[in-house]
Amino acid sequence: MMGMMMHRPLLIGSILDFAAEQHPRAEIVSVRTEGDVHRQTYRETAARVAQLAHGLETHGVRLGDRVATLAWNGYRHFELYYAIAGLGAVCHTINPRLSAEQLIYIVNHARDSLLFVDLTFVPLLERVRDHLPRDLRYVVMTDRAHVPANSLDALCYEDFLDGHATTFDWPEFDENTASGLCYTSGTTGNPKGALYSHRSTVLHALKVALVMGASLGEGKKVLPVVPLFHVNAWGLPYTAPLVGMGMVMPGPALDGPSVFRLMDAEGVFSAWGVPTVWQGLLAEIKAQGRLPRGFGDVIVGGSAAPRAMIETFEKMGVNVNHAWGMTEMSPIGTHGAMPTWVREKPFDQMINYKARQGRRAFGVELKIVDDSGARVPHDGKSMGELYVRGNTIVAGYYENDAATAKVIDKDGWFGTGDIATIDADGFLSIQDRSKDLIKSGGEWISSIDLENVAVAHPAIASAAAIAMPHPKWDERPVLVAVAAGADRPSLEEIHAHMSEHFAKWQLPDDVIWVDALPLTATGKISKLTLRQQFEGYKLPDLR
Ligand code: ADP
Description:
Layout: H1 13-22, E1 27-31, E2 37-41, H2 42-58, E3 66-70, H3 75-86, E4 90-93, H4 100-110, E5 114-117, H5 122-128, E6 137-140, E7 155-156, H6 157-161, E8 178-184, E9 192-197, H7 198-211, E10 221-224, H8 236-243, E11 246-249, H9 256-266, E12 270-273, H10 275-288, E13 297-300, H11 307-315, E14 319-322, E15 324-325, E16 332-335, H12 340-343, H13 347-355, E17 359-360, E18 364-369, E19 384-390, H14 401-407, E20 414-422, E21 428-433, E22 438-440, E23 443-445, H15 447-454, E24 460-470, E25 474-483, H16 491-498, E26 510-513, H17 527-533
Parallel strand pairs: 1-11, 3-4, 3-5, 4-8, 5-6, 6-7, 10-11, 10-12, 12-13, 13-14, 25-26
Antiparallel strand pairs: 1-2, 8-9, 15-16, 16-17, 18-19, 19-20, 20-21, 22-23, 24-25
Helix pairs in contact: 1-2, 1-8, 2-3, 7-8, 9-10, 11-13
The chain binds adenosine-5'-diphosphate.
Adenosine-5'-diphosphate binds near residues 301, 302 and 304.
């Protein structure tokens, strides 16, 4: 027997409609590429989104068309999210930190018809435009006075809105209609497209509102340092309006002092981003000897948050939520909101829990399998590849069957490429990316564990552990480190610091000091680049 309830499609537009009506005064505050700070409410945003939709329609955008963005976090980017998806077209966010070759690949692969670009990236497009589709039209995201001289024959964003009605008769369509497209940076091979739907996006927004409750709240402000150009800024452009939270959009400047200043000026409560960003903010907090005004919560994910970082924030009274996810998961898979029984534990033990990757969000199933594909127990010890299933996870890649076949198993689960354990209470612990694990003498060493302990040394600002080939042991770990100050502790001193946590054979064979670690397009330490950089390096016992 079927239920007898109305079927109303889950459409993204309903989120902004709701916010404009229920949270009309909450603001989007944006640091603009034009150099000033701009503010507008959700109600004003909804009106501009309607105008933009008219503009898009006038320029021929129809159901299913791909419309690209190449932009920082700001209100215009947010407006594009809603106007494009509202028409039933697909908002294809492009990561400007991709290589020129990757950018050319994805614009051609997605067959975008329009490309909206921030002032900053106009020169980037001018350099590659000969390799992009001839009929692609460009729109600079500014007003007419600021459109720079350019060879793109570009249109102007504000002209798209000018003179149009501030209401729109939004079409209704199937909730499984595609709404967004984001390519994973893909460390090998071409980038692969995750094609989100209205349904998956709305469910994701609801799910995040549910599990991240302590980090959200009506009338508070959230700072997405995570970019709108990658994985929908972890869904914040949907979750924040849904719960009536104001958004503070940082624009291009993401260094510690800039982020501190903005948070302080706006009284940001919760800030979301990758660990490398928080390193910069922590340095500025230390320099100023105080927290930004109103700051009480940080969401960290994208790569493992070092235990020392979590501890530092928590000691200052800032709640840390350590989450895990992937582009292919919209992206939230697990979250670090602690159950009461963990919060009641002594501080040190509580931090140990926070250093793991948390527990699954509603609607995300997790399983760990061994090399033969058989499930291993959730006992906190058995390690294997992590597979996921759920209604906010890709069923495959956009027009790429070969890549899809590699990640979807026979039962329809998605293989994350992460090696993990799960304990009996459901806490996930990511040991490594499968390709980053270090195999020494038939045993595995987690590079994440090594890095975590290494950066707790006061002289080490950041570190990456990578495998170096060894004729006898297969691979041996080497630590590539950035010093916090002038002090460069010897390998023996680093061993002394780390030996409490590791067996002797797990300790790095060498430490290499560098000025900075290479980052990926999404701000994570790029082990691939490091491995290339140190190709030919010889371990001390082989020299
Ligand atoms: P990219 O940003 O490089 O395109 P994703 O954002 O999809 O790719 O990256 C997903 C991967 O990032 C995960 O598979 C995992 O390896 C890593 N990751 C994300 N969050 C965490 C975390 N909290 N701890 C450890 N690794 C993480």
